[in-house]
Design brief:
This protein has two domains: about 100 residues, Alpha/Beta hydrolase fold, catalytic domain (Rossmann fold, 3-Layer(aba) Sandwich), CATH 3.40.50; about 70 residues, no CATH class. The protein is mainly alpha-helical. Helix 3 packs across helix 4. The chain has nine helices and three strands, in the order H-E-H-H-H-H-H-E-H-E-H-H. Strands 1-2-3 form a three-stranded parallel beta sheet, with helices on both faces.
Amino acid sequence: MLATQYTLSQPPGLRKLILCGTPSDMPTWVRVTSSLRANLPPEVVAVLEVCERTGHTESPDYQAATIEFYRRHLCRSVPFPPELLASFAAMAEDGTVYTTMNGPTEFMVTGTLAKWSVLGELKGITRETVPGGVLLLNGCFDEAQDECVRPFFERVGANVKWVQFALSAHMPWLEETERFLGVVGGWLVA
């Protein structure tokens, strides 16, 4: 999202842009993640709903239910890779930035980014501002489903190459590392 905002400021010298699992619009993200969440087992959905309604989003039950969503749509690697566990630990130690900007989870967006959108600005990413084009990536099981990223493909004025990782959720660099590095590396040197 930050890279998109930066690109829209039309900085001189930018050649290429890589967007991986990046939403173009947070209201769409919330709608999509809510739909994915509704497909969790009913007992998991019930825990999420009760904890959100009662303000217990920091409870162990809520955290465990959230992990069920994350196993399906954040990272499908079993067990979670050490890099992801380190991120979870850092957020548990101090989640101020994440909760302020996003909210308690990937699917309960209540922070300052809740209404963020660049849908009306995407035509500003042009062949002139990004002459090397845009590499758009997402996973088949990604919380950033196609609906979230498609506007980059359809509305951006620069050349866009869209690659989806069939075995990945939101973190193909951890889930399909070799293919991810091949796709990104090949695109960067082209």
